[in-house]
Prior knowledge:
single chain, 5 helices
Amino acid sequence: MVQRAIENVLVGVSTLIILFVLFFVLAEVVARYVFNAPLPGHLEGAELLLPMIVFGAVSYTQARNGHVGMTLVIDALPPRIRYHTDIVILVLSMLTCAVLAYFGTKYAYQSWDYDDVTMSPPFWPVWPSAAVVPLGYLLLALRMCLQALQIVMPERFPEPISDDDLHVFD
C-alpha cells in the first residue's frame, strides 16, 4: 500500500513535469520566433526533466504490466515452466535494477558533492535529475520483488493492480 501511494504521487509529479515541459518549450518557441529573444538554457532544462518524467512513472507502469514485452515464447510454455520462468525473470530484473539503483545513487551523490551543472547558462544543477534515476530503479526493484512474491505466495500479498481497479471515469 505504501509503494502504491508513492507510485501514485510520482506519477502525478511526472504528469505535472510533462505539462511544465510542454509550456516551457512553447514559451521558448514564442520567445524565439515572436520576440526574437530565446530563453537561455531551455534545451538543457528540458533534457534534465526527461529522466524525472520517465523514472517517476516506471514503477507505476510495471505494477500495471504496462511495459512492452515480447512474451511469445513464454506464453507458449506449459504453466508450471512459465511459473518458474516468471519468477526467475523477475528476480534477475530486480537484481539488475538494484545494482543500477546503487550505482545511480553513487553518481547522483557525486554530482551533488561536486555541484555539477550544465555547460551553458543558466547552469542548471544536474543532481536532481540524476537522483530521480536511482529512485525509479529502487522502486522498480521493489515492485518486481513484490510481483515475484505475489506469484510465489498469492495468499499473503495483494493482487497485481489492473486498470479495472482504477475506476478513473466513474
